[in-house]
Specification:
The protein has 135 residues and is of the alpha/beta class. It contains 4 helices and 6 strands. It is globular, with a radius of gyration of 14 Å.
């Protein structure tokens, strides 16, 4: 049975989002969520969850000592559990932003567009890493 998943590359300025499903183990960019002063745009997060109705949420774990980023990630997980009660799984994502930058380097688009897409591509890579754990 195929499941729908959402992946989040959580950041301090914006959070990239990707969607995918377990049947084909593919991912696609699904947008980004603004973060202001460490707080996510919760209505935007809720809208994405309502739109995609995921069976599982995959959250990138940067394995960092940055207390601000760790607080944002913990706050995000708490919101998911409190408001949506959807299972979550953490995936190591230490190099996804670098890999996303490399993937976008060859594309002809504005720097602003590359910045917007970087977090979404990183979320795709997080989701693909999760799919690789299923094999």
């Amino acid at each position: 049975m195929s499941q729908t998943l959402l992946a989040f590359d959580i950041g301090l300025k914006r959070t990239g989002v990707a969607t995918g499903q377990t049947l084909t183990k593919t991912s696609s960019p699904a947008g980004q969520v603004a973060v202001t002063r460490g707080r996510h745009d919760w209505p935007a997060v809720d809208d994405l969850i309502q739109q995609w109705a995921p069976d599982l949420i995959v959250i990138g774990d940067p394995q960092t000592d940055d207390p601000h980023l760790n607080k944002a990630i913990n706050r995000f997980k708490s919101h998911i559990q409190r408001h949506h009660k959807i299972p979550t799984v953490d995936i190591n994502e230490q190099l996804t932003s670098s890999a996303a930058n490399q993937a976008l380097a060859q594309r002809t688009m504005s720097q602003a567009r590359k910045t917007e897409m970087r977090d979404q591509i990183a979320a795709c890579l997080i989701l693909e890493t999760y799919f690789n754990t299923l094999i």
